[in-house]
Structures are given as structure tokens and as C-alpha cells.
């Protein structure tokens, strides 16, 4: 039996994806394939309303790519065909996943690990965590979205600082820069991510999906295109059972039950 490098558990509408490749949960082609398989299944599982991505153990969320694979990929064209093309497809799928995603960073978050984290909608880091894009020290650079997804979060200047020097930053600096969305005490990132995800399971799933699609397009479309995309998405939201339930509950002074509406 092949090793399982991405574990999946589901509880109360929250799926927990755990990267598990000891000791530092590095990204291999097997791990990437298993991540894709898990995401494919979760995308069509109507019982799942939010995703948490975390790493096994306390040393690392994910410390980047398995450098031992590099020797197979150092001739022109090899790294794209053997690793990067498919890896980028999978990371892009995570970045545009139709359900909200939360990354729980409980240890080192480096290179490809930070690229995975930046595909998630919300990032929670423990206070002791270091984050870095150190690929430049190997003569390469982040090649699975780090160059642009990190830049979108922290801006061009700080992104260049991270990628040109490759040095780690602290969780607090990452929070100040906007790279992560919260810093929590050591040992609590997963619990806090579960709490956030639990809140998201009670939100209107269709409206969240539409909202996410417009936000994700913010850097790719011009303002006129974004207005049109927002109008189209808004029309779909306003005509949904979720909206009818939200308005009904507002006037009834009740908490809306969006999950019931999805099956009505």
C-alpha cells in the first residue's frame, strides 16, 4: 500500500486536510497527487462546507519541496513536465476552491508550504512560526504561485524582500504585513481554524462562493469587468433560496438557517 501523505477527516461540515510527510511534511509528487484527489472529492461533497488545511506534528506545516526530487529535473523542460505544471494546476484549484478554506500553520511554513498556505482564503499562524520563501538560496524561485499570490497579499516591495533574500519572517511580522490573518498561541492554530471554519459552515454557502469568485478576480480584471462580474454574481445571490431565508429571518428576528434552504 502506498503511504498516505494527505489525511482527511470530516466533522460537522468541516473537512480537515492534514499534510503528513515526516519529519517536515515536504511536498513530493505523491503528496501533490493525493492533495488533488482529496480536493476533487471534497468539491462534490455537499456535506462539507469549509476546509481546514494543516500539517501533521508540531515542527512544520510544510517546509517546502522535497529537494531530493530535484536531481531528476535539472535538464531544460524536465521540472515543468515532471513537477510544476501539475503542481500549479492543483494549487490553482485550491486557490479557487468553491468552498472557504483556512490554513492552520503550527510550524515551519517554507517555500512550497507557504505557496499552499497562500492558496487558502484565511491563514492562522502560531506565534512561534517562521515563514519564508527561501528558494533563491537553491538558485531557483517560488514556481507554484508564490511569486504572485504572496505579492497580492503583501505588496511588491515586501514580496521581493522575501524572495530576493529568502530569509524567514516571524508570525508577528507576517501579520503586520498581511501575509497571515491571525496569530495565536503555540499549539492552538488548528483549534482556532476549526472555530473559524465552524462559523463559515453556518454562512450561506452559495453567497460565499460567489463573493470569493469576485474577490479572487480583483487582480485579474479591470474595474469595468469587475463591476459586471459583481453584478452577475449579485443577481444570482439575490435570486437564491439563501437570500429568501436571510430576509425572512431578518424580519422574523430569527437566526437564518441557510443549510435548510439549500435542500428546500
Q: What descriptors fit this protein?
A:
264 residues; alpha/beta; six-stranded mixed sheet; four-stranded mixed sheet; 11 helices; Enoyl-CoA_hydra/iso; ClpP/crotonase-like_dom_sf; Enoyl-CoA hydratase-related protein
Descriptive account of the structure:
It comes from Rhodococcus jostii. InterPro entries: ClpP/crotonase-like_dom_sf, Enoyl-CoA_hydra/iso. This is Enoyl-CoA hydratase-related protein. The chain has 264 residues and is of the alpha/beta class. 47% of the residues lie in helices and 16% in strands. It has eleven helices and ten strands. Strands 1-2-3-5-7-10 form a six-stranded mixed β-sheet, with helices on both faces. The chain has a four-stranded mixed β-sheet with strand order 4-6-8-9. Strand 1 (6-11) and strand 2 form a beta hairpin. Helix 4 (146-154) packs across helix 5 (156-165) and helix 8 (205-216) packs antiparallel against helix 9.
User: Main sheet?
Assistant: 6 strands, mixed
Q: In sequence order, what are the helices and strands, one letter per element?
A: EEHEEHEEHEEHHEHEHHHHH
Q: Which structural category fits the helices and strands? A: alpha/beta
Which strand order does the major sheet show?
Answer: 1-2-3-5-7-10
Which outline best applies?
globular
Strand content: 15-25%
Q: Percent helix among the residues?
A: 40-55%
Number of strands: 10
Unreliable spans: none
Distance between the termini: 43 Å
Radius of gyration: 19 Å
Average pLDDT, all residues: 95
What count of helical segments does DSSP give? 11
